[in-house]
Specification:
mainly alpha
Amino acid sequence: MRTVLERGGISFAISSFAGTLINFIIDLIGNACGIFGFISISPDFRCLFPTPVMAAYVNIFLYGLIGATFAMMTVIFECNRIGFLIQGLIYFIVTAIVSVGITVLFWQLHHHPAALICTLLGYGVTYVIMGFVQYRRLKQDVQYINEELA
């Protein structure tokens, strides 16, 4: 349990920082291009809070929550009694519920189709990469076990 919490905490911090940094860069570019006062948060999301600053803080927290979920759910791949396909399915379901739920409900991306499509494509690519990495790792483990048995 400690390992799961450590992974979650570290990933929360990294995801929050990375999300903030990316938003900062987008905001700088927007303002440099003449869109003064540009904030890279959905206007619909901003309306949910009394101030834009509060919306920004919650946004940072949500970045961290998504990252922590992805990191903490990797523990499912350490359960040797569960098959790889079931592990991947559980990982996909839990992380999709959290990440897509935050994306659609909190960030109000269902009002912004292009942003929603890009976000969903990003998640899809993430799942493909994670699946590939886990498959390679599993294949190496099986190869190592076979070599030890031989």
